[in-house]
Amino acid sequence: MEPAIAVDDLVVDRGKRRVLHGIGFRAAPGSVVGLLGPSGCGKTTLMRCLVGVQKVRSGTVTVLGEPAGATPLRRRVGYVTQAPSVYTDLTVRENARYFATVLGVAPAEADRAIGDVGLESHAGQLVGALSGGQRTRASLACALVGRPDVLVLDEPTVGLDPVLRHELWQRFHELAAAGTTLVVSSHVMDEAGRCDRLLLMREGRLVADDTPAALRAETGTDDLEEAFLRLIRSASMEVA
Ligand SMILES: Nc1ncnc2c1ncn2[C@@H]1O[C@H](COP(=O)(O)OP(=O)(O)OP(=O)(O)O)[C@@H](O)[C@H]1O
Asked: Is the pTM of this model over 0.90?
């Protein structure tokens, strides 16, 4: 089966610094790929490459068989940045319907997306008057409007309580079961265990690319946080 995402030898410089040093991985269609690693290791930069908004020094990024950022992908790839990108002076429904108009889909799609993130009861509220977690969900609703085939989510659960986090992860798995490929960055280890595959990054390099079960087996611990610490330590020793 052709991968939904194929990245090879990806090198990116930001300013004068090299921030990605030859990254390569595959994401199968309908899978949830977790992107983990310490702050500043390059997760957001890699996500920007997947959606085609990052200048790339060398290497290739192919999404749904097209070069990342290609025009046909515009409707097929959804991106939710860390800072919610919604208009604060519009209501949740107006924001989602605006996206529906841009994508040329029916307004009902916008209402469905609002339901998907559990914001029906706040649909008529101005985004500026929502809590941080509600704003994050409003942003996610907008990304869901066009039913994208690939969803790139930069720390989508930051600021959400455990119940909402659980609900959103359920939603992610439903989307994956329906064929959407999700790439989700996170700092939260219990979320790592919910992914089909994990990419662990450190200083712009992949330290691990495997299933949670395989990473647990490789490191000899059931605790993914401990597993990651062990992998990062052994990667540091290899570099030294
Ligand atoms: N606009 C920019 N110009 C120059 N360097 C940048 C820029 N944005 C990020 N960087 C650098 O690129 C590197 C990777 O940053 P990136 O935002 O991809 O990390 P991250 O893993 O997403 O971090 P976090 O978990 O804190 O969000 C960091 O060293 C950062 O300082």
From this structure: yes
